[in-house]
């Protein structure tokens, strides 16, 4: 039986070159980067090099990068660190109904703390209305957090236009770019982004690494207490091996970005073509015009998601029903519910996501096996 991993939006395998990059920092270069002796200076240089590379990749300056443990911490820090900063007078914040739970649950916490939260709705393509955003802004609005690319559907938002609107109003703008970073060109200045979150394990780096961009001058209050690492913004000895790995993974992604984009587009089109040839019924969930190609979310009406996933696994195909952070839940995806309400397609959806190691023959195999399973279960 052939094994095909199509759940890269949940996590990705570590690139072999990234592993090689890490090894010296797990063996001879073990110094604490805050130490002044040469052991510490060796690892400090690795942090400095990584910070510079990551900053350059998004058009930022090196002092605007905070290394974190991943996307969740970056989202938490971005939101809590800014709204709680001294001088913030307003108590109104805005996000969307389809954010990752790292953002949604943080906004739920803000509600408990007395903040007024607006959750923007989305249409059946998973896109917000810019008019609704504009209507929602008030004199008390201090932060808007809207993800760049949805982790379940691949749908993208008009981040550049959103950034323009918020800059004119002098309202801080945070975007969760976990699914976008490394796959498309990002420039925080062109996009008018004040805070940006990214995660290493989505770009073939180990789990436990990530970063947060915080624009110079944005009021920010640290949420952890301890040492003075990361310019007093995030206490704790830095994960040097993980950060070195993140730098390498980001540099590889930067170099291969256009090639990967074309490859994933081909994979996406191939799956849909095979299903059409097999004459099985499916509905694509997301936007046909505004999306990133590494995620394909489809509904096979009449086939329950859990049953389909189990059968796919038995055929050697790893896919998912959405965010890995809600794995085990029998509730329909909050993203699809926001898009379609209680429509049956929310109960028969599967997410296929592409990445390192996938080949065209793997995609064709997975598509044909999926068609066989759907035909069998539909009976």
Question: Care to describe what's here?
Answer:
It is a single chain. The chain folds into 2 domains: about 5-10 and about 255-379, Alpha-Beta Complex (Aspartate Aminotransferase, domain 1), CATH 3.90.1150.10; about 15-250, 3-Layer(aba) Sandwich (Aspartate Aminotransferase, domain 2). The protein is about 40% helix and about 15% strand. It contains 11 helices and 12 strands. A 7-stranded mixed beta sheet has the order 2-8-7-6-5-3-4, with helices on both faces. Helix 3 packs parallel to helix 4 (about 100-110). It is globular and about 65 Å long.
- From the spread of the alpha carbons, the general shape counts as globular
Question: Describe the biggest sheet?
Answer: 7 strands, mixed
CATH architecture of the largest domain: 3-Layer(aba) Sandwich
- Overall pLDDT metric: 95
List the uncertain runs: none
CATH class of the largest domain: Alpha Beta
What is the structural class? alpha/beta
Helical percent range? 25-40%
> Span from first to last CA?
24 Å
CATH topology of the largest domain: Aspartate Aminotransferase, domain 2
Reading the helices and strands in chain order gives: EHHEHEHEHEHEEEHHEEHEHEH
**Radius of gyration over C-alpha positions, nearest whole angstrom:** 21 Å
Going by CATH, the homologous superfamily of the largest domain would be: Type I PLP-dependent aspartate aminotransferase-like (Major domain)
Strand order of the largest sheet: 2-8-7-6-5-3-4
Helix segment count?
A: 11
Question: Number of folding domains?
Answer: 2
Task: Please tally the β strands and state the result.
Answer: 12
Task: Give the percentage of residues in beta strands.
Answer: 5-15%
């Amino acid at each position: 039986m052939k094994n095909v991993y199509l759940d890269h939006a949940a996590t990705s395998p570590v690139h072999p070159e990234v592993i090689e990059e890490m090894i010296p920092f797990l063996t001879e270069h073990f110094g604490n980067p805050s130490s002044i002796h040469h052991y510490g200076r060796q690892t400090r240089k690795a942090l400095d090099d990584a910070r510079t590379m990551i900053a350059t990749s998004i058009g930022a300056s090196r002092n605007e990068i905070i290394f974190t443990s991943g996307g969740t911490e970056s989202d938490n820090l971005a939101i809590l660190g800014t709204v709680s900063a001294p001088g913030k007078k307003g108590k109104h914040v805005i996000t969307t109904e389809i954010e990752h739970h790292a953002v949604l649950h943080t906004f739920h916490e803000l509600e408990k703390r007395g903040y007024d939260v607006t959750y923007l709705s989305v249409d059946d393509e998973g896109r917000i209305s810019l008019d609704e955003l504009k209507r929602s802004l008030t004199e008390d609005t201090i932060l808007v957090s809207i993800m760049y690319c949805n982790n379940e559907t691949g749908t993208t938002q008009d981040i550049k236009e959103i950034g323009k609107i918020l800059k004119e109003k002098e309202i801080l703008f945070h975007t969760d770019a976990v699914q976008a970073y490394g796959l498309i060109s990002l420039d925080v200045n062109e996009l008018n982004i004040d805070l940006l979150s990214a995660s290493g394990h989505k770009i073939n780096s180990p789990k436990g690494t990530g970063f947060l961009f915080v624009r110079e001058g944005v009021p920010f209050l640290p949420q952890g207490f301890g040492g003075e690492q990361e310019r007093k913004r995030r206490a704790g000895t830095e994960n040097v091996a993980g950060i070195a790995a993140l730098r390498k993974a980001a540099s590889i992604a930067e170099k291969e970005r256009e090639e990967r984009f074309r490859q994933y587009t081909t994979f996406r089109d191939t799956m849909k073509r095979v299903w059409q040839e097999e004459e099985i019924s499916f509905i694509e969930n997301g936007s046909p015009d505004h999306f990133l190609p590494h995620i394909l979310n489809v509904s096979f009406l009449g086939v329950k998601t859990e049953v389909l996933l189990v059968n796919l696994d038995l055929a050697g195909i790893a896919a998912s029903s959405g965010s890995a952070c809600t794995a085990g839940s029998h509730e329909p995806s909050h993203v699809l519910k926001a898009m379609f309400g209680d429509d049956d397609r929310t109960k028969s959806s599967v997410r296929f996501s592409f990445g390192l190691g996938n080949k065209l023959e793997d995609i064709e195999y997975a598509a044909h096996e999926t068609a066989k399973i759907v035909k069998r279960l539909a009976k």
